[in-house]
Amino acid sequence: MDEFAWFMEQFRLLTGIDLTRYKRPQMERRLTNLRDRRGYRTFPEYIEALKLNRALMDELLDKMTINVSEFFRNPERWTQLRALLSAMGKSPRVWSAACASGEEPYSLAMLLLELGLHQHPILATDIDERVLQRAEEGIYAEPQIRGIDQNLLDRYFLREADMYRIREQVRKQVQFVKHNLLVDDYPQGLDLIVCRNVLIYFTDQTKQQILERFCSALNPGGILFVGSTEQFLGMNLGSLSPVAPFMYQKAK
């Protein structure tokens, strides 16, 4: 019996999340290590424990989704994005997909406020409800705000003891919603999609499907901004063309 294949099917029935669309070696190694650390010898034992223990399930979801983010990650990319958004000449409709704990959509909100382009709420989505709750609170420890320019920090954050809270001016620009990239409908009529360092965890077939759905969701001239770990070698980009490192524009 392929025990991990059995576990993936049981997990799909339990949560609706299809692990077969993730790269198996990485996912199997990660979840086997987590199972072993919690003292379960087999995946049947582990799945029964997951059904009964919400904290255990939350831990697994956190491990599965790799909730790692930071403000203005790779600053040179944000400089390029700023130029592309300025050239649009309009307030863009933006989706921050797999947004984790909110650093990315809040970075987008600050950038658009600086450009005077903020009229539409930024849609920020993730599969993990717990990180979305933390994102909505908009409270970050000092190590988490290291990538923020001091001027932006002074303008858009409030210092509370040893923590920093996003000002309401920024928080109200972002709408957080639970969303599964693999099964849920995608928003349409977008001018910018940001999905960074996420597609690397999916199989090539699933990555291609997501890429096509992103392309369909974009308006002509819209931008897809991905992470520096993403590789689209040998993939069909459709009407998307590279316009900057890790940024693709849909044909106008």
Question: In DSSP terms, counting alpha (H) and pi (I) runs of 4 or more, how many helices?
Answer: 10
What name does CATH use for the topology of the largest domain?
A: Rossmann fold
Q: Taking Cα atoms only, what radius of gyration do you get, to the nearest Å?
A: 19 Å
From the helix content, strand content and strand pairing, which structural class follows? alpha/beta
In the predicted model, the low-confidence regions spanning at least 5 consecutive residues are none
- What is the strand content? 15-25%
Shape: globular
Strand count, sense and barrel status of the largest sheet are: 7 strands, mixed
- Helicity level: 40-55%
**Major sheet strand order:** 6-2-1-7-8-10-9
Mean pLDDT across the residues is 92
Going by CATH, the homologous superfamily of the largest domain would be Vaccinia Virus protein VP39
The CATH class of the largest domain, by name, is Alpha Beta
CATH architecture assignment of the largest domain: 3-Layer(aba) Sandwich
Taken together, the total number of domains comes to 2
